[in-house]
Each structure stands twice: as C-alpha cells, then as structure tokens.
From TrEMBL:
Signal peptide: none
Top-rank taxon, per record: Eukaryota
PROSITE patterns referenced in this protein's UniProt entry, alphabetically: IG_LIKE (PS50835)
MF term (GO), any: axon guidance receptor activity
InterPro entries xrefs: Cell_Adh-Cytoskel_Orgn (IPR050958), Ig-like_dom (IPR007110), Ig-like_dom_sf (IPR036179), Ig-like_fold (IPR013783), Ig_I-set (IPR013098), Ig_sub (IPR003599)
Organism lineage: Eukaryota, Metazoa, Spiralia, Gnathifera, Rotifera
Pfam families in UniProt: I-set
Keywords noted in UniProt: Disulfide bond, Immunoglobulin domain, Signal
Name this protein carries in UniProt: Ig-like domain-containing protein
Domain Ig-like: 61-153
Entry GO terms, CC: axon; neuronal cell body; plasma membrane
SUPFAM superfamilies xrefs: Immunoglobulin
Length: 204
C-alpha cells in the first residue's frame, strides 16, 4: 500500500514522495519524514486529515533552505531561514549542549511576514568552536530543526564538503478517490537516506 521513492533534481536537490494506495480513514494521522546523511539530519512532520482539504503543517516552523555559513576575519555567522506563524522561539546547541549567549555568542531573528531568518554569531573563533550546531524553532503549531556542521582549523576556516539535509518547502498532499501522495523537496549532498513513519511506526 505504501510506495516510497526519492527522485533527483538539479543542484543536489531531491523530491521525496510517499504514495498511499487504497487510502481510507485509518490512514489519517501524523507522518514524519527523516532525511539523513553524514553531515546531519532534518525532519518534517505532516498531519494527514482525510476529511479536511486543509492539509499539511501550516504554521509549524519549516526550514525552507540549506543553512548558510558566513565567514568573517575573526567571527562566523550561522543563518537559517524558516516559515512559521506565529513567530517562533528558538534555541541553539553545540554537540547536543545548549549554547549560553554572552560576549562570544549572539543570537537573533529577523522576520518579514511569516518568513524568519534565525542567526547565531560566534566571535573570537577557536578550533573549539568546531562541531555540530543545531537550531530548534518552536511555536504553538510545532517545531522544526536545522543542522550545521562547522569545522575550524587554526585561522583557516574549512567547511565540510557537502550539504546537510534540509527541506526546501512545506509538504504538499494530493488526494484523489483511491490514492494520497505526500511530496516534499530536499537539498542534500551526499544523497540522503529517508525514513517515513506514521504515528511513530516506520513505514516499509
């Protein structure tokens, strides 16, 4: 009943699809897609309501492009863009540990309508600032996560080759009499492994 596939697009992009045949009321629920490669992982959540045409995760924080890293002489700026309504709160971690804001770390958010740019500025860089950064954006509709891997060696900045998975848009849901199709675009390099779950159970 489940057809899962991922088709390549230009510029390290992919379109991930989940097709549900003979769709019925029991297929309603919370779906999640996880995209993972050696540089990181990203997740998207989809609420499938078969008795409602208003599908998708409207309002939930959704990261819409790959995180950006801007290098300066002695600092770095990590930027992530997401859509969310209302404006989300957000937290940053480094290798799983919360980052305490202060003299070296400054965070902020710039909002234009439902589009928000979340940033973290790190001053007085050292090799200890290397690691896996994660930003979590939350509002009353849910949460979203973006990952950035930062490698710093001495005074030379070396970014990892490739792109951590990031979702480029909100999931779209198409439904006809017998089939429901969930589709979402991903950017990643190398190509990501994908896992779909429904209400916490993996779909095979």
């Amino acid at each position: 009943r489940y057809l899962i596939y991922c088709d390549p697009l230009p510029n390290n992009a992919y379109v991930a699809c989940l097709e549900i045949d003979d769709v019925n009321a029991s297929d309603a629920g919370k779906y999640k897609i996880s995209a993972k490669n050696k540089l990181g992982e990203s997740n998207a959540h989809i609420q499938l309501n078969l008795d409602n045409q208003e599908q998708g995760s409207s309002g939930r924080p959704t990261f819409t492009q790959a995180p950006q890293v801007r290098m300066f002489e002695e600092s770095v700026l990590l930027e992530c863009r997401c859509t969310a309504e209302p404006v989300p709160s957000f937290t940053w971690t480094l290798d799983g540990k919360p980052i305490t804001m202060g003299a070296r770390y400054k965070q902020g958010i710039l909002s234009e309508g439902n589009t928000h740019t979340i940033f973290l500025e790190i001053a007085q860089l050292t090799a200890k600032d290397s690691g896996a950064y994660k930003v979590t954006a939350k509002n009353v509709k849910g949460d979203g996560v973006a990952n950035i891997q930062l490698n710093i060696e001495g005074i030379d900045f070396k970014l990892p080759e490739g792109i951590a998975p990031s979702f480029l848009n909100k999931p779209s849901i198409k439904q006809d009499a017998k089939t429901a199709t969930v589709q979402i675009d991903i950017i990643a390099d190398p190509s990501p492994s994908l896992h779909w779950t429904k209400d916490g159970k993996e779909l095979l």
